[in-house]
Amino acid sequence: MNAGTLGMIGCWFYTLAALHVYIAFRPAGEPFASILFLAFAAVMISYGIGHAGYFAIAAGAKAAASLGADAEAGGKLGNAFFQRLTFIIYIPTAIASLMMLYAVLAGRSMYSRWMVIFLPIVIYLLKVPVTRILRGRVKELVNDSYDNIALFVFYALSTILLWGGVVL
Questions:
Q1: Are 39 and 53 within 8 A, CB to CB?
Q2: How many CB atoms lie within 10 A of CB 90?
Q3: Count of H helices and E strands in the chain?
Q4: CB 139 within 8 Å of CB 2
Q5: What percent of the chain has pLDDT over 70?
Q6: Domain range spanning residue 106?
């Protein structure tokens, strides 16, 4: 319940923070920055919806277990729903990610080219190697919160670069 609730509240802040993307990519032109902002904001909104969908897995499993049925079978419908949401989220994620990669590499953003390493999609693609080197509870925590870690790193660096006066 807490994860679903906090996911919704968190996505409000993620969506507001997506203004970083608009500001950082204005050098690529207003239409480019606006489309990128809308795609990225859609991804951020989807985080909250995804948390609610993920909750459906646990709720179904718990209901099945309390009735003496197989918990895994009880979570199947919630899992199918979550997988559907995930598949849909790939569309704005692909649009935003490709646009960000292009603009940073082409020098058409307020970020230096090295920032490409810290774009959310690049950090996310490093999830498997990062979690492979971790063990135990730390691995479990990082695995479960990896999307949030990727966004935290991106937004923290973006804040430093856009508002901290740091030019690297």
A1: no
A2: 12
A3: 8, 0
A4: no
A5: 98
A6: 2-163
CA distance 98 to 104: 10
The DSSP string of 110-142 is SS-GGGGGGSHHHHHHTHHHHHHH--HHHHHHH
3-state secondary structure of 25: coil
Report the C-alpha gap between 80 and 86 in whole angstroms: 10
User: For 1, which DSSP code?
Assistant: -
Q: DSSP class of residue 29?
A: -
pTM for this predicted structure = 0.86
Residue 168 lies in a domain: no
Q: Does 55 fall in a domain?
A: yes
Number of domain units in the chain: 1
pLDDT digits (tens, 9 = 90+) for 32-67: 999 999 999 999 999 888 888 888 898 999 999 999
Strand ranges for the chain from DSSP E: none
Distance (Å) of CA 23 to CA 2, 15, 36, 56, 154: 32, 14, 11, 36, 14
Query: Which residue, chain included where needed, has tokens 């809308």?
Result: 38
